[in-house]
Structure formats: C-alpha cells, structure tokens
Amino acid sequence: MLIEVHMLKNFPPTNLNRDDTGAPKTCMFGGVQRGRISSQCLKHSWRLSPILQEEVGRENIGKRTRKLPDLVAEKLLERGIPEELVEAVKPKITGFGNKEGKETTDGKTAQVIAYSPADIEAVAEQFAEKLKGCKSPKDVSKLSAKEIQAAMKGSVSRAVTLDMALFGRMVTSEAFADVEASMQVAHAVSTNRVMMESDYFTAVDDLIAESAEDTGSGMIGDIDYNSSCYYIYASLDTDKLLENLKNCDNAAEIVRKAIPALIETMAFSNPSGKQNSFAGHSLPSAVLVECRERKIPVSYVNAYEKPVRAKGDGGIVHESVERLKEECLRTERLYGLTSAKRLWFTADETVVFEDGKAENCASLPELIAALPEA
Prior knowledge:
Layout lengths: L1 E9 L15 E4 L2 E6 L1 H9 L2 H7 L6 E3 L2 H11 L4 H11 L19 E3 L1 H15 L5 H4 L4 H7 L10 H6 L15 E3 L2 E3 L6 E7 L15 E7 L3 E9 H7 L6 H18 L6 H4 L5 E9 L23 H20 L5 E6 L11 E3 L3 H7 L4
Parallel strand pairs: 12-13
Antiparallel strand pairs: 1-10, 1-11, 2-3, 3-7, 4-5, 6-10, 7-10, 8-9, 11-12
C-alpha cells in the first residue's frame, strides 16, 4: 500500500533552512519566487524528533555520523580491550566507509554514514577479533581497514533502523548494505509568492558608559527572513518499508507504531534553523492522508502553480486549504486515481470533503487514531 501525506504549514517571519549566503532557501515555481525547505532539512528534523524516538524507541533510530571510531572504541572498551590498543586502532577505523580503506588525519571517517546498532557491533566485533593477536600499539599499526572491511560478511542480513528503512542509505563500503528508501519526500514549497526581507539589528554593550566618548552599539548585523505557507508532501510505500525491516525481530510491530508516529512527527516538528531568533513553531493548517492500493504517487503541488493571494475575508491559509481539497478531488475525477481511505483534518472548519469518501476528522488526534485501521 502507498500512504501519501499532504500538509500545509503557515509560518511567520522565519529562516528555517538557509542557503550558502545565510538567506532562506527559495525556488522558482509558476514563474515566481517561492520559499523552499529542502527535503533533507525536513527529514533531518523528523528523524531526530523526540516524538518519533519516544514512540518507536531510541534503539530503532540510527546514528548518522563521521565519528564511527569513537562509537567503536566505546564497544571495544566494554569488551575489555586495553585502552592503549583501542586508541591505537581508532585511526584504522577512520578508513571505513570507502573501498580503499584510506585513513584520515582528523580522527573521523571520510564520509557521513548512517549506522544501526547492529552495524556498530559488527565493526567492533571484527576489530576485537583482530586485536586478540596484538600485544602493543606497534602490532595494531599492521592492521588494514581495507582487509577488515572486506572480511565483514553478512551486511545484507544485518538489521537496519527505522530511519534508514524510511529514508534510505547509500554507501561505498562493502561492510554496509545500501538501503533503498521506502519514503519519498518533496522539497516544501510556499503556496504564496515570497518576498525576501532583512532584519537589521544592533547588539548593545551593557558596559558602555554614558558619555560622548564611549557610545554606539557593540556590533551590527542583519538576518534575512520571509513568511510563507508551505505545502509539504511525502509518500510511503509500506511494503517496501516492511521489506527493509525484514531482518528485525519485530518488523510488523515497528511499522504499526511508526506510521501514526511519523504523521504526528511531521505535524509537530519544525526545522531548527534560526529558531532562537524567530521562534517559528507552527502547527499544520491542514493534513490530508490518502491510502492507495495502486502505487501511483501524486503530489498536489500544482494546486499552487498560481500563487495564492489573500483576498476579501479569506487569508492565504484559507485559500491554500481550499485549493488542496479541490486539487485532490480534481485529480481523482480526471485521472481515476481513487483512494482506499482518505483522512482529512483542517483547523479551518469551513473546508470539508462532501463527497462521502473522505473521513473528515475533527482533530489531529482523531486523524492519527484512524490511521491503524486505514
């Protein structure tokens, strides 16, 4: 089954996801500039959300890092390996993650890789076995990360964590298996035309004396920002998710917990960019979840090809919610793409599905509670 999530979130002035200049990311859509939040940014905020971790268990969320040597060193020390041998082997572990096994000089792997607890244990086991024949750091220097990687068998049968099963993993090392993502996430695009603004600020030095010789600000600066109503879209192939988790002892249970937790996480989690400056913590204005037997994913972003503008008594949010509902019905009518189940919640109680096929939920908890049956 394919589960598709369509969500609208309206943000006040924020800078949630910055480009290389420090300005909020943008894109061109419908011939005008829009606000944008990258899919990488969204997935990062979701996978690290306390909501998801609490619901599915911290052990089902991996670690995405270059600090594999530190993680493996902890495991080796727990196994009783002498500290001097552990410190000597850490540079060897930096060679993991690439086929050549080339060591780095900064104590970290060359690539950022997502690791499951099983991956870390497997690496620690390999090095612990090799260290049995080492009596001094000099003996450790003869070990080869390339050879140890090649000796690691069974990576395909090793259990992966939920976040890897959802968002995938691509590696160049034979020690770890690639994972094809079961969830596709679009870049969030604003439904409205975006107007970039800049906040010029000064920082006051509390100890500046009140005299003509000692006046002015301690520093000056500026922060770019915008205000946007974002359309967020993601599709989840539940069969692929189960397949990715096949080596877990309780795959079906993880999925049963994961799907409602994921919708809740998407609703309540926001990117962390410049939040201390703007506190842009917004709740969704509308959530549409569709369950399809036919795996034909469809984004409703073209509802906003013409940017939304506030008109009359209706603001941007109301018009965006209306368009989302109409695009859903139009797509079904024109293309015959029906849903086995359609769940709809909006804070704007005037916008409801009246076709009799959708379940209009009075609250977000009601929508989430209806997911397991769907």
